[in-house]
Amino acid sequence: VTKGKLLYEGKAKIIYETVEGKGYLVHFKDTITAGNGEKKAEVPKKGEINNQISSLIFSYLKDKGVENHYISQLSTREMLVEKVGIIPLEVVVRNVATGSICRRLGIKEKKVFSNPLVEYYYKNDSLGDPLICENHIELLELATKSQLEGIKAIALQVNALLTELFESIGIILVDFKLEFGIGEGNRIILADEISPDTCRLWDMESGASLDKDVFRKGQGDVLQGYTEVLNRLKGRS
Ligand code: C5P
Fold this sequence. Notes:
There is one protein chain. The chain is of the alpha+beta class. Helices cover 30% and strands 33% of the residues. It is built from 6 helices and 14 strands. The strands form 3 sheets. Strands 8, 9, 10, 11, 12, 13 and 14 form a 7-stranded antiparallel beta sheet that branches. A 5-stranded antiparallel beta sheet has the order 1-2-3-7-6, covered by helices on one side. A two-stranded antiparallel ribbon has the order 4-5. A hairpin with a 4-residue loop joins strand 6 (70-73) and strand 7. Helix 1 packs parallel to helix 6 (222-236). It is globular and about 50 Å long. Bound molecules: cytidine-5'-monophosphate (C5P). Cytidine-5'-monophosphate is lined by residues 90, 92, 99-101, 129, 175-177, 198-200, 212.
């Protein structure tokens, strides 16, 4: 597979066409951002680690029957994915309260939800990715009612599978964000990345954050947690 035209550059990834025309090439950058890009830094090797973690998680989900855009890992920082048109929606699933939901709704930190909570955010930088409800999604024509039902079901399935996966390596899956795309034949396909940039992961024993919160809160070496997550995932497969 040969890298083709640059299609899109985001905060943490670059998407290229492939010369062969089969699939897209995803390049994972070392850039880390928080607060919609207000805080920004370069973390050498982060891209390589997130590429590997995302690849392992997407493969695991595929094995468990969750269709997703991952095809193969091409190099340390690059993966080959199916061509999909990304839906501008961020689907967040929460098992434990922290982050924006505590600020927004006054919920106590670390409250464990009896049922996973699914939230939707409109992926729009200039609007600051606002929280929206299912009616807004229909109104903005981001997805139809039946597409959204499919998206929610997949998000909850991913939550159940990843909760179990992380539990088996001593990690609590606190919350995470998913993105979906429309693939061939109008299929809804899980896409983007699943990594410590997009998940909150707490070590079961120490409670330490093994994710981007270390950067958000300026608590030191963010890569240490990411590396720990990768090593534990590798250790199980
Ligand atoms: O900030 P908030 O508490 O809403 O984040 C919920 C989850 O979604 C966290 O795991 C966070 O890393 C992820 N997220 C993301 N991209 C965003 C916003 C949140 O990956 N733009």
